[in-house]
Design a protein that fits this description.
Length: 453
């Protein structure tokens, strides 16, 4: 695997240390070139004419995502974001007063806002499924919640990997319960798609949503939905237009027989083309190889972090992924972000409402999450894995870092990069003062034996 080639295929890695891949990853050159070529064609031919000429490229994401998820292309919809996909499913469900929704404690904020809307509009009830001692969904508690009333819940909606910690929920175990009980199961895979292998048949989900801009390293403004044929036979999308349905009479319409019923006519066709290229890029690298490398780096980072005095790891779970969360009494999240930005290191800051229930369990105050990166395998035998981190802010001095291993094509020369310090209350940090410096350098520079460069 050629690291030099892989890094050369990620232009942004030449100038910055991009640790914000949990937000939006740096795309490979192939993705950028595909988008540019499509936009150029639109400028020369016209938008509709470009669509007619580029049918194969526009169909690419359906086949590629079907291969990645082990489903059929007609079960895939391409939309503008993961939230759009999720909302097309959720708000299309025919909720009635007294219906129950079961969700995870680490549910993403946008999803939970939709639950609150459903509570207000339809008077549904929402319950968070308890977690076991390891921070995983307690399947026994889930079964008890289902059986506590004669009327079963109408929906189980779970975020596979939370934005606030490195645990991976046992989505397959939830799926087995949902299938046995005949309950619709909606899985938010925003943080897991592209990081680990996913098989919707094994997961047992009726719906799965994801974005292109995170681990898949695709364009912003791209997302997707998997909708099983069984689910499509039961439910309609929240909103229709003439792309997803045909107007057949003054009071009638006919849904598209495929998951394209969840799409709308207008979206960036260049983003759609780029998404197909990005998914194929990951497939060529091999999801099992990507996942193995992510776990290896995350394990190493956790081991090194445990050696640091004054640092507490918060990740717990039967299965951990690239995200590593820990707390460190130091500077405010805003200071951390500013200090890193001054050294050419990208991170982001998000508030506790991103996963409010989980934050209240994890820490009494919102947590700080930062990113680091390492190396993993890309197309044509090159590999590069990156650890990304995210910041979650609070006014309190206690903060928690999150470091996540993320597939990325960026330079891993940590020795030339400054990383945050946790000493005095100052934003003028240097690499020499940073207690994480040696830990980060070890992870950044560690390479498997079969990687060159």
């Amino acid at each position: 695997m050629d690291l030099v080639k892989l890094r050369a295929e990620t232009v942004g890695s030449q100038a910055r240390a991009h640790f914000n891949n949990a937000g939006s990853a740096l795309p490979p050159t192939a993705v950028v070139q595909a988008q540019h070529a499509y936009l150029d064609l639109e400028a020369k031919l016209g938008g509709y004419e470009a669509v007619e000429q580029q049918q194969m490229a526009l169909e690419r994401p359906y086949a590629a995502l079907a291969q990645m998820l082990s489903c059929e292309p007609d079960e895939i919809a391409i939309v503008t974001s993961a939230t759009t996909a999720w909302q097309q499913v959720f708000f299309g469900l025919p909720f009635q007063r007294g219906d129950r929704i079961l969700t995870s404690r680490a549910e993403y904020g946008s999803n939970y806002l939709a639950y609150i809307q459903a509570m207000k509009r339809h008077h549904v009830e929402v319950s968070a499924i308890p977690e076991d001692d390891l921070g995983d969904i307690d399947v026994g508690a889930l079964e008890s919640l289902i059986k506590e009333r004669p009327q079963k819940p109408v929906l189980i909606a779970v975020t596979h990997v939370p934005t606030s910690s490195g645990r991976v929920y046992s989505a397959e175990a939830v799926g087995r319960v949902a299938q046995r009980e005949g309950i619709t199961y909606l899985l938010d895979a925003c943080q897991s798609i592209g990081q680990m292998p996913l098989d919707v048949r094994a997961l047992g989900c009726d719906y799965l949503t994801g974005t292109g801009r995170k681990y898949l390293r695709g364009p912003r403004g791209s997302g997707f939905l998997y909708a099983s044929r069984k689910a499509m036979a039961k439910h309609e999308p929240a909103a229709l237009d003439i792309h997803g349905a045909t107007w057949t009479g003054e009071q009638d319409y006919k849904l598209d027989p495929t998951a394209k019923r969840y799409e709308v006519y207008e979206m960036s066709m260049a983003a759609k083309v780029g998404l197909g290229v990005a998914v194929e890029y990951a497939l060529n690298l091999g999801m099992p190889h990507i996942w193995d490398r992510v776990c290896s780096l995350a394990t190493l980072m956790r081991q090194k972090l445990e050696e640091l005095p004054g640092l507490e790891l918060h990740d717990k779970g039967r299965q951990l992924c690239g995200i590593i969360s820990f707390s460190l009494k130091s500077h405010s999240p805003a200071e951390v972000k500013a200090a890193l930005a001054s050294k050419g290191i990208n991170i982001s800051v998000s508030a506790a409402p991103s996963t409010l229930l989980d934050f209240r369990t994890l820490l009494p105050t919102p947590a700080l999450a930062a990113s680091s990166r390492a190396t993993w395998p890309p197309a044509h035998g090159s590999t590069r894995v990156q650890s990304f981190s995210r910041l979650e802010t609070s006014a309190a001095p206690a903060c928690s870092w999150t470091v996540a291993s993320r597939l990325s094509m960026e330079r891993a020369t940590a020795s030339s990069r400054a990383v945050p310090a946790s000493g005095k209350q100052s934003s003028a940090w240097t690499a020499q003062r940073c207690p994480l410096k040696d830990t980060c350098q070890t992870v950044f520079t560690k390479k498997p034996a079969n990687i060159r460069g």
